[in-house]
């Protein structure tokens, strides 16, 4: 598993994108509807500018990537990890969500 992104709740994603890129000098990595990500030049981890108020209950906004989400889900379930959303293929990729012992939710997206 690799650390990939952190959601930052913003009131207006387009304005936030402008501020992060023009004011801070971050690179725009992706800009597709709800999925806008920015990062400092050369960074491996991105900020997902998540236009939501407030962030869904329990959602940490922290995302990880894996080469094979379904296989990792099977492996982690054997260790007692609870998945709030099992692996599912969406038009933009395969995703799952898992919980820590306190109910904090983490995203897992296929590379």
Descriptive labels:
111 residues; alpha+beta; 2,3-Dihydroxybiphenyl 1,2-Dioxygenase, domain 1; eight-stranded mixed β-sheet; 8 strands; globular
Please describe the biggest sheet, giving its number of strands, its sense, and whether it closes into a barrel. 8 strands, mixed
- First-residue to last-residue Cα separation: 10 Å
How many domain units?
A: 2
Order of helices and strands: EHEEEEHEEE
CATH structural fold name of the largest domain: 2,3-Dihydroxybiphenyl 1,2-Dioxygenase, domain 1
Strand content: over 45%
Structure, described:
The model has no long low-confidence stretch (mean pLDDT 90). The chain is of the alpha+beta class and 111 residues long. The chain folds into two domains: 9-47, no CATH class; 56-111, 2,3-Dihydroxybiphenyl 1,2-Dioxygenase, domain 1. An eight-stranded mixed beta sheet has the order 2-3-4-1-5-8-7-6. The protein has helices spanning 13-23, 69-78, and strands spanning 2-10, 27-32, 35-39, 46-51, 59-66, 82-90, 93-99, 105-110. It has two helices and eight strands; from the N terminus they run βαββββαβββ.
Question: How would you concisely characterize the structure shown here?
Answer:
By secondary structure, the chain is α+β, with helices and mostly antiparallel strands.
Q: What's the helix and strand layout?
A:
Blueprint: E1 2-10, H1 13-23, E2 27-32, E3 35-39, E4 46-51, E5 59-66, H2 69-78, E6 82-90, E7 93-99, E8 105-110
Parallel strand pairs: 1-4, 5-8
Antiparallel strand pairs: 1-5, 2-3, 3-4, 6-7, 7-8
């Amino acid at each position: 598993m690799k650390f990939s992104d952190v959601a930052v709740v913003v009131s207006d994603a387009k304005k936030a994108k402008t501020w992060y890129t023009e004011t801070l000098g971050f690179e725009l990595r992706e800009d597709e509807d709800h999925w806008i990500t920015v990062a400092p030049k050369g960074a491996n981890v991105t900020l997902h500018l998540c236009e939501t108020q407030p962030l869904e209950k329990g959602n940490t906004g922290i995302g990880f990537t894996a080469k094979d989400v379904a296989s990792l889900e099977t492996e982690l379930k054997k260790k007692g990890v609870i998945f709030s959303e099992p692996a599912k293929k969406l038009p933009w990729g395969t995703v799952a969500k898992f919980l820590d012992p306190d109910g904090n939710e983490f995203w897992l997206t296929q590379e």
